[in-house]
Design goal:
290 residues, two-stranded antiparallel ribbon, 7-stranded mixed sheet, globular, alpha/beta, 12 helices
């Protein structure tokens, strides 16, 4: 089955993005009805994070999220198969000169990259311009694993680290002036996490970002990929380096990260990765939400 999926992505990647987009949206609408467990997770997340919305508004937001997730699935074929020049045309890096200036100054950089649906194509576009380091989680399906690895490593000289590799490997790569494409906003359990609010709900939040910044002497640069409507492509939005980071304590830094994430999510709420069980780890004594 996975080989069929890869073959379909290869076929679809030849189409203009304006044609791929509605195909992906149609697949996403279908998946909304075909995957009840993920639909339930998405609606639960939206209920917790957007209590001010009506049930109908949250359901409409969930449907739009699945439509965009379908787009991101179909358009992943571009990351795996399209030539660099086509990806350059479709994915623009906003303020690329800012990151180039930091790299040329040999300043270690952590690209704070939240789980928005465009992050794979955003990462591929970054890899065309910069030799980066990122964390790679092996997939259970060997075929998908091979193509994901290929897509993330086929341009430039990228370094992909396994989740079980030490912090030392990440620090070493950053000090070699490889921007670290870092995704720290998922629930990875209680280990090395602190409970801080995410849309007002206590969420197990990784505390590794300030530690990595401190050990690597790195600045944190926000890096958010935004999907544009239809065939307009994507834009990777780079923000200013965070001043005074790390702060006085880990909890303050985790709160700052979540506050930044909330602000960006509110600008494009359907594009965040809501199918993830963001609140699966609960504070002691609190009931499960899923």
């Amino acid at each position: 089955m996975s080989r069929i999926v890869v073959a379909l992505l290869w076929l679809l990647h030849w189409l203009p993005l304006s044609v791929q987009a509605p195909i992906g949206r149609a697949i996403g609408h279908l998946l909304y009805w075909l995957i009840p467990p993920r639909r339930k997770v998405t609606l639960t997340n939206l209920r917790l994070c957007f209590p001010e919305l009506s049930e109908g508004e949250r359901r409409a937001l969930a449907k739009e999220h699945f439509a965009l997730a379908g787009r991101s699935l179909v358009e992943r074929g571009l990351a795996w198969f399209a030539p660099a020049e086509r990806i350059r045309r479709l994915v623009r890096i906003d303020r690329e000169a800012l990151l180039r200036q930091l790299v040329d100054a040999r300043q270690p950089v952590i690209l704070l990259t939240p789980h928005f649906l465009g992050l794979d194509l955003g990462g591929t576009r970054m890899a065309i311009s910069f030799d980066c380091v990122s964390i790679y989680a092996r997939q259970k399906d060997a075929v998908i694993d091979r193509w994901l690895f290929h897509g993330r490593s086929r341009f430039g000289s990228q370094q992909l680290l396994r989740r079980d590799e030490s912090v030392r490997a990440s620090i070493k790569a950053m000090k070699e002036i490889r921007p670290f494409y870092y995704l720290p906003d998922m629930d990875n359990g209680p280990n090395e996490s602190v409970f801080v609010p995410f849309f007002g709900v206590p969420a197990a939040t990784l505390a590794a970002l300030p530690r990595l910044a401190r050990l690597g002497g790195a600045v944190v640069v926000p890096c958010v990929t935004r999907m544009l409507p239809g065939g307009q492509g994507y834009v990777v939005e780079l923000g200013d380096p965070w001043p005074d980071f790390p702060g006085p304590d880990v909890e303050t830094d985790a709160r700052r990260m979540n506050a930044f994430l909330e602000e960006r999510i509110r600008t494009m709420p359907a594009q965040y990765y809501w199918v993830h069980r963001r609140f699966k780890t609960r504070p002691p004594g609190e009931p499960k939400v899923y």
